[in-house]
Design brief:
Chain A is mainly α. Chain A contains 15 helices and no strands. The longest helix of chain A has 32 residues. Classes of the chains: A mainly alpha, B mainly alpha. At the A-B interface, helix 1, helix 4, helix 5, helix 6 and helix 10 of A face helix 3, helix 4, helix 7, helix 8 and helix 9 of B.
């Protein structure tokens, strides 16, 4: 039955479309602006004549960036941190979440509390800093001189992600597990052949959360990685931002693109990988956040 | 009879769970040799317990050990010695920050300022940031075309996945100050705001981020930009779960859009709203230090509105190397934060039978 929209419903509908269109465009605008500003001419960017579409198009800001070895260095460091960091966090979380999902695990409540307490109470930034500093000394003394490994190993675990995995594993029907055990599977086979394939979407979501937080990691990498050549992309962007906004005041800039364009070019380069995987991972978001309704 | 570990729990076929063995002899034996049974169970199931070990170690070393470092807040600041060897000093760090007499005078003023800023940033976040995702979800529900709606949703989620560095860089660039030397105007957003008459030309020219009066607004608006779309997912899921028959019934009763909102939609998503609100209150005092530091670094002029407890203690640590004082400040913040979490969780459990953790 098709009924006529009431006037109040019509107003609300029109307003919804209007509001959401504007909001969505506003969300997108800074990114579009960044793309335009990275390829616009110097005068246009410096004198803020750019509104949305690029003018006096140049690609030298990008080629300047691509010609910079430090940029590629930072990029490869970020890739290193993202790949190894995600694998490390994910493997530990899957094993932990799997064990916690088993009813036969002794002291299960205590282990859960051990995990959940870190969500209630965190020591804070300064104690955490002292802790990482001490870890760094230990790592260096056993011969791990590359601080990237410190970032990979010591940082980026999240209790929430383990709980998401635990809940997913709890939802796997126990009959299937029994069948596997009857067929002679070991614990490890049960996990890899039954539980992991059956919780694929949650694992994908959690892997995504880990990967994004690793890709975006900034503060602790900046504090803990002493060698400037080992710093990730986010630290590089921030350093460039600080460097180039000062440069403009000095007036020592002779290129035909604005210093700002270099920063915008960097920003564009740093978000491209996320934009590429974004359409594929997008469908998992809703699942991930809904599963966040945690139970105990 | 000596019971084996496997006798302790038996598998109940009917309900599919493990139960304690009801046989009295077994139970007595378990009670008598409790730890031996535990050991037997662990040995029998060692693979499972081994899987827990890496997780436990990671959390122990890098989540619980920092809590041990918090003990430094009770000790005299000595930059050379580790916490364990420092001289125990009692509550003087706390007292200094709270009361502030003598050498602590400025520190205490700054501490209370940071407390106030932490609270206000959270409170405004609750006031302006919290309703936004709900409003978005209500509007998304009006768009019946799946393609149009998910297209819009994709755009609004996007900022959530950008790094804090990228977000703050964009904010800094888009509201940057103008240059009096070259005559360059301020950033594009500042220009737009000035054109709309929301801020004066002069304020825009001097840079919004250099003006303490605007920090809170910048923080909240960039926060909404960052998270409102993504946070609306939960509310949207609650709204689309409402059965269409509820709307039909209301329409037959002659309910207009506002009445439908009031009597159909709102009651259905109320529990989600309450849970999210309580979560939000629980995490009220944990303002992300990364964003604040990235926005106010090198801008001492705006510390009066932007410095929160975590950045305050970071400043104490990095400029004066007073780890004990810095830890004391964070300790107070985090204990209050934890009480809020536990309180919020208790209320949630009482109110809706849902425990968040």
């Amino acid at each position: 039955m098709k009924r006529k929209l009431e006037i109040s419903e019509l107003i609300f509908k029109i307003f919804s479309y209007l509001f959401l269109t504007i909001f969505a465009l506003l969300c997108l605008y800074p990114f579009l602006y960044a793309v335009s500003a990275s390829i616009s001419g110097r005068h246009v960017v410096e004198y803020q004549e750019l509104i949305l579409f690029p003018k006096d198009i140049q690609f030298e800001a990008f080629s300047f960036m691509f010609g910079n070895n430090q940029f590629w260095n930072a990029y490869s460091n970020t890739l290193f941190l993202t790949i190894f960091g995600t694998v490390w966090s994910l493997v530990i979380s899957i094993m932990g979440g799997y064990a916690l999902s088993k009813k036969r695990l002794l002291f299960r409540k205590a282990f859960n509390f051990f995990l959940v307490f870190t969500m209630w109470f965190s020591a804070g930034i300064v104690p955490q800093y002292l802790n990482y500093l001490a870890t760094k000394t230990v790592f260096n003394s056993i011969g791990i001189m590359d601080d990237k490994w410190l970032v990979v190993i010591a940082m980026g675990m999240a209790a929430m992600n383990i709980i998401l995995l635990r809940n997913a594993f709890e939802n796997v029907p126990s009959e299937i597990e029994e069948a596997a055990i009857v067929d002679g599977s070991t614990e490890m086979q049960v996990l890899t052949k039954v539980f992991i394939p059956m919780s694929k979407s949650t694992i994908a979501t959690v892997a995504l959360f880990f990967a994004i937080s690793r890709w975006n990691g900034y503060f602790w990498a900046r504090q803990m990685i002493s060698n400037a050549n080992e710093q990730p992309l986010q630290v590089f962007i921030r350093n460039q931002l600080e460097q180039y906004t000062d440069l403009e005041q000095l007036g020592g800039w002779t290129a035909n693109y604005a210093p700002d364009s270099v920063i915008f070019a960097l920003i564009v380069c740093s978000i491209i990988p996320i934009l590429i995987i974004y359409p594929f991972i997008q469908k998992y978001f809703a699942k991930g956040t809904n599963a966040g309704g945690v139970k105990e | 009879m000596t019971a084996k570990a496997s006798d302790f729990l038996i598998y109940d076929e009917a309900s599919g769970v493990y139960r304690e063995n009801p046989e009295q002899a077994v139970r007595d034996d378990v009670e008598k040799h409790y730890w031996r049974h535990v050991l037997q169970m662990v040995v029998k199931d060692w693979r499972l317990y081994l899987m827990l070990v890496p997780m436990i170690l990671v959390f122990l070393f890098w989540r619980y050990m920092p809590m041990y470092e918090l003990l430094g807040s009770f000790k005299v600041d000595d930059v050379v010695k580790p916490v364990a060897d420092q001289y125990f000093k009692g509550f003087s760090n706390f007292k200094g920050l709270l009361v502030g007499s003598g050498t602590f005078a400025t520190l205490s003023t700054d501490f209370w300022r940071a407390m106030r800023n932490t609270f206000l940033l959270s409170f405004y976040g609750l006031l302006f940031g919290f309703p936004m995702p709900i409003i978005l979800a209500l509007f998304f529900n009006e768009i019946k075309s799946d393609i149009v709606r998910s297209g819009m949703q994709v755009f609004t989620y996007l900022p959530k996945f950008m790094s804090t560095v990228v977000m703050t860089s964009l904010v800094i660039m888009l509201i940057r100050q103008g240059s009096s030397a070259t005559g360059a105007p301020p950033g594009i957003i500042s220009q737009a705001l000035a054109a709309l008459g929301l801020i004066s030309q002069e304020t825009a020219q001097n840079g919004l981020l250099n003006n303490p009066n605007y920090f809170r607004a910048i923080y909240q608006i960039s926060g909404i930009w960052e998270t409102a779309g993504y946070d609306s997912i939960v509310f949207f899921a609650a709204i689309i779960a409402i059965s269409p028959t509820s709307y039909e019934a209301a329409q037959i009763d002659g309910a207009n859009k506002w009445a439908q909102m009031r009597y159909v939609v709102l009651p259905s998503i109320l529990s989600t709203i309450v849970i999210m609100l309580i979560t939000r209150i629980g995490s009220m005092l944990s303002i992300g230090y990364e964003k604040v530091l990235l926005l106010n670094e090198e801008r001492v002029a705006i510390y009066q509105t932007s410095e929160v407890i975590s950045t305050f203690s970071w400043r104490i640590k990095t400029t004066q190397n007073q780890s004990g004082l810095a830890s004391a400040a964070e300790m107070m913040n985090n204990v209050v934060g934890m009480l809020l979490v536990i309180g919020a969780n208790t209320i949630a459990r009482k109110a809706s039978n849902v425990s968040l953790y």
